[in-house]
Amino acid sequence: MRELSLNILDIAQNSISAQAKNITILVRASGGELTITIEDDGKGMSEEFLSKVMDPFTTTRTTRKVGMGLPLFKEAAESSGGSMKITSELGVGTVVTASFQIDHIDRMPLGDLAGTMTILIMAKPEIDFVLEYAVEDRSYKFDTKEIKSILDGVPIESSEIITYLEGLINDNITQVNGGAVI
Question: What's the whole-model pTM score?
Answer without folding.
Answer: 0.91
